[in-house]
Design brief:
With 249 residues, this protein is α+β, with helices and mostly antiparallel strands. It is 24% helix and 30% strand.
C-alpha cells in the first residue's frame, strides 16, 4: 500500500520488508524521527512477534502495521480497544464468518486465530505503539500452525482488500479514541458479546502465579474477570491465557 493515506496519521511510513513494524516504530521514536501520530506499514515481517516474544508468521499478502500515538492519556487497555475496533471492521465486511475476541489481544475467525495485537509504551518519549498483524490475503500457512491459525482468504475463498480493512480500522480507531481518553472506559459489552472465553474455564498465567477459573468477560478498564471460586470474581489487568476450554461460548 505505497499510496495509503488517512487524516489520523501525521506521517505514514511504508516498507517492502521489515523485521517488525513495532521495532521500526520504536526505532523512529527513539531517533526522534517520528512526528505526532504515525503509521508503519510493511508488506512482510521477517521477525514478527506476538506476546512473550512468540514468533508471528508474517508473509507477503497479510496486513502488518503499527500505529504510534503521541502523548496519549489512556488508562484502559489499548490492545483490547484495538481488538474491538478491528472486530467491528471484520464483522461488517465479512458477516457470514464468525469472529471472536480472545483477551487480551487475539482475533479469531471460525475458531482459529486470524490476528494479534501487541502494544507497548515508551514512557521517556510519551509514545504508545499499537502493532497489529492480520492474516488476510494469503492461503499458505506453516505446517505447525495450520490446526491453530487461519487466514481470511482461506475462510472466505475471496481476495481480501487490505487497504479497505486498514482504512475502516483507522476510521473507527480515530473516531472512538477521544471518548476512551475522556472516560477511560472500553465498550466491555461489545467485547463480552463476542468473547471467545466468556463462561469458559481458563488458566491465566501472570508474572506472579497461575490462576484457574471461569472467565466472566472483561470490565470497562479491560481487565479480565475470573471467577476463581464460587461468587469470588477477581479482575486481572495483565497475563497470558495458557489454557482454555474449547467449545461453544
Amino acid at each position: 500500500m505505497p499510496n495509503f493515506e488517512h487524516s489520523f496519521y501525521d506521517e505514514i511510513y511504508t516498507y517492502s520488508s521489515l523485521n517488525s513494524t513495532n521495532k521500526q516504530a520504536e526505532k523512529l521514536i527513539k531517533q526522534r524521527s517520528a512526528v505526532g501520530n504515525f503509521l508503519i506499514l510493511a508488506n512482510e515481517q521477517t521477525g514478527g512477534r506476538g506476546r512473550r516474544s512468540n514468533r508471528w508468521f508474517s508473509p507477503v499478502g497479510g496486513l502488518w502495521f503499527s500505529v504510534g500515538l503521541y502523548s496519549l492519556n489512556v488508562n484502559s487497555s489499548l490492545s483490547v480497544y484495538a481488538g474491538i475496533c478491528m472486530h467491528k471492521v471484520l464483522q461488517d465486511m465479512f458477516p457470514e464468518q464468525e469472529f471472536k475476541l480472545k483477551w487480551p489481544n487475539d482475533l479469531y475467525c471460525n475458531g482459529k486465530k486470524v490476528g494479534g495485537i501487541l502494544t507497548q509504551y515508551l514512557d521517556k518519549y510519551k509514545y504508545h505503539i499499537v502493532g497489529i498483524g492480520l492474516n488476510t490475503n494469503f492461503t499458505d500457512l506453516e505446517e505447525d500452525i495450520t490446526d491453530l491459525a487461519t487466514t481470511l482468504r482461506r475462510e472466505t475463498a475471496k481476495e481480501i482488500d487490505n487497504t479497505t480493512i486498514l482504512t475502516k480500522f483507522s476510521d473507527i480507531f480515530a473516531m472512538n479514541l477521544p471518548e476512551l481518553m475522556e472516560t477511560g472506559k472500553l465498550d466491555a459489552a461489545y467485547f463480552n458479546q463476542f468473547s471467545l472465553l466468556k463462561n469458559k474455564k481458563i488458566t491465566l498465567d501472570t508474572d506472579f502465579d497461575k490462576f484457574t477459573g471461569v472467565s466472566k468477560g472483561i470490565n470497562k478498564k479491560g481487565a479480565i474477570l475470573l471467577e476463581i471460586a464460587p461468587a469470588m470474581v477477581q479482575p486481572f489487568y495483565a497475563g497470558t491465557i495458557s489454557e482454555f476450554e474449547k467449545g461453544d461460548s
